[in-house]
């Protein structure tokens, strides 16, 4: 679906309104393939709303936008969502199911081979917790389960909403390493965070948001 | 569609088996409600058997509303809803899967409640057994209708109270058909005709759900 030459995300004057309230009020954005972008800004600046728009979870009210070649206003948002990897700052899975059961459900839904589960669990360091119900995981382990879900999916566009929340230093380092890997493999990653990324190795583009708009850009 | 339906039904039943909400909360509530009905009818057995079909379905509606809220509640947390949405599951399959899981739960509860009718409301064992096929069909139709209305109210403010307000008019024809067929099985009458009406209602709700569930989910 995506083309090496074309931006993965293009927004022009994007406005998103929910129940008459403007969550985004004119966002212009272009993201190339294989890039890492960090959205920073205060609470309510519009970071999560922008991620939700890119994920096809909320609609585009006015303006223009395409994500992975799909028109946000007129295209099939259900099809778009299938190519997105979403990690919210809340729990992203079924609390009563175990780690393995959650991942098995996702793998079967996406028609991915189940033999990848072991590798993915090892990659995120949850092998010893494979039979633990998700509700019994610590906040950091829940993040890792969310990451395992994404690794299983291998999405073209990763949208991560405050992924560093509740992570200790080891967890942040692990996360940074993983982001570097997936970007190097060609994925496009957008991360929302309260502060700029700690790791200088990732070399992201940092966009500052306020009032539902992008008000600053730094590379 | 069938693949997704089996996947979703299996997931919902596994969650129910793990959480044991059905076993320890819903079924005991239904049995207590049936017991209260028996107490309200008084110590003599006169009229118990005539009132039993109606009382049985009143209790069925109460437990069905609990189960429908529960079935959609596990999907409704913001993070889980977003993650599942990005799986891009076929909505018709999701509807069939959730309705099937709900039907299985209602059938198990219904069989326990029918046993309660024999013990508490003194319905004849043979007549109650003859009513079983029609009860299963009506409960299946309630599961299908409830899954539709559950999707309509999930995530909205006051979903727990909105669900009964919206769904009771939809349940009413099913309850009448169910009560009449149960009554006919106990005391003679047009059992087969009411059973066929229930089957038609089940088919109708399944067809509407397959066609409209995606629209309800998106809205």
List strands and helices in order, with pairings.
The complex is a heterodimer of chains A (219) and B (219).
Chain A: E1 9-18, E2 21-31, E3 36-40, H1 47-54, E4 62-67, E5 70-71, H2 77-81, E6 84-87, H3 99-109, H4 117-124, H5 139-153, E7 157-161, H6 169-184, E8 188-193, E9 205-210, E10 213-218
Parallel strand pairs in A: 3-8, 3-9, 6-7, 7-8
Antiparallel strand pairs in A: 1-2, 1-4, 4-5, 9-10
Chain B: H1 2-19, H2 21-41, H3 48-76, H4 78-85, H5 91-120, H6 125-153, H7 159-187, H8 191-218
Structural notes for this entry:
The complex is a heterodimer of chains A (about 220) and B (about 220). Chain A is an alpha/beta fold and about 220 residues long. Chain A has a domain at about 1-75 and about 190-219: Rossmann fold (3-Layer(aba) Sandwich), CATH 3.40.50. Helices cover about 30% and strands about 30% of the residues of chain A. Chain A has helices spanning about 45-55, 75-80, 100-110, 115-125, 140-155, 170-185, and strands spanning about 10-20, 20-30, 35-40, 60-65, 70, 85, 155-160, 190-195, 205-210, 215-219. Chain A has a six-stranded mixed β-sheet with strand order 6-7-8-3-9-10, sandwiched between helices. In chain A, strands 2-1-4-5 form a four-stranded antiparallel β-sheet. In chain A, helix 4 (about 115-125) packs across helix 5. Chain B is mostly helical. Chain B has one domain (about 1-219). Chain B has eight helices and no strands. Chain B has helices at about 1-20, 20-40, 50-75, 80-85, 90-120, 125-155, 160-185, 190-219. In chain B, helix 3 runs antiparallel to helix 5 (about 90-120), helix 3 (about 50-75) runs parallel beside helix 6 and helix 6 packs parallel to helix 8 (about 190-219). The longest helix of chain B is centred in the middle third of the chain and has 30 residues, at about 90-120. The interface of A and B includes residues 84, 96 and 105 of A.
């Amino acid at each position: 679906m995506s083309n090496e030459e074309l931006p993965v995300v293009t927004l022009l004057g994007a406005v998103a309104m929910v129940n008459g309230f403007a969550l985004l009020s004119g966002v212009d954005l272009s993201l190339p393939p294989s890039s890492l972008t960090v959205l920073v800004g205060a609470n309510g600046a519009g970071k999560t709303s922008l991620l939700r728009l890119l994920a096809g979870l909320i609609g585009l009210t006015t303006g223009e936008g395409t994500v992975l070649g799909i028109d946000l206003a007129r295209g099939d948002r259900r099809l778009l969502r299938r190519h997105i990897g979403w990690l919210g700052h809340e729990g992203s899975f079924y609390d009563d199911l175990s780690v393995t059961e959650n991942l098995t459900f996702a793998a079967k839904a996406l028609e991915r081979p189940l033999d990848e589960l072991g590798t993915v669990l090892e990659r995120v360091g949850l092998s010893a917790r494979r039979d633990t119900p998700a509700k019994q995981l610590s906040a950091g382990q829940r993040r890792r389960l969310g990451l395992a879900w994404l690794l299983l999916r291998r999405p073209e566009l990763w949208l991560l909403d405050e992924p560093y929340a509740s992570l200790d230093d080891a967890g942040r380092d692990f996360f940074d390493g993983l982001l570097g890997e997936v970007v190097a493999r060609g994925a496009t990653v957008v991360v929302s965070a309260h502060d700029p990324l700690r790791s200088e190795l990732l070399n992201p583009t940092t966009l500052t948001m306020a009032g539902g708009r992008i008000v600053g850009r730094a590379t | 569609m069938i693949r997704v339906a089996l996947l979703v039904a299996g997931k919902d039943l596994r969650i129910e088996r793990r959480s044991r909400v059905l076993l320890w909360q819903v079924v005991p509530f239904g049995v207590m409600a049936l017991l209260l009905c028996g107490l309200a009818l008084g110590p003599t057995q006169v009229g118990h058997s005539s009132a039993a079909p109606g009382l049985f379905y009143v209790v069925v509606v109460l437990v069905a509303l609990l189960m429908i809220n529960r079935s959609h509640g596990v999907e409704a947390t913001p993070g889980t809803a977003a993650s599942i949405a990005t799986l891009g599951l076929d909505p018709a399959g999701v509807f069939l899967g959730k309705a099937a899981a709900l039907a299985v739960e209602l059938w198990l509860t219904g069989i326990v409640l029918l046993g309660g009718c024999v013990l508490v409301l003194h319905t004849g064992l043979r007549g109650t057994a003859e009513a079983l096929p029609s009860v299963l069909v009506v409960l299946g139709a309630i599961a299908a209708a409830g899954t539709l209305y559950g999707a309509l109210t999930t995530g909205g403010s006051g979903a727990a109270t909105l669900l009964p307000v919206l769904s009771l008019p939809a349940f009413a024809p099913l309850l009448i058909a169910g009560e009449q067929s149960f009554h006919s099985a106990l005391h003679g009458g047009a059992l087969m005709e009411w059973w066929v009406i229930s089957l038609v209602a089940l088919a109708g709700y399944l067809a509407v759900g397959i066609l409209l569930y995606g629209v309800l989910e998106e809205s």
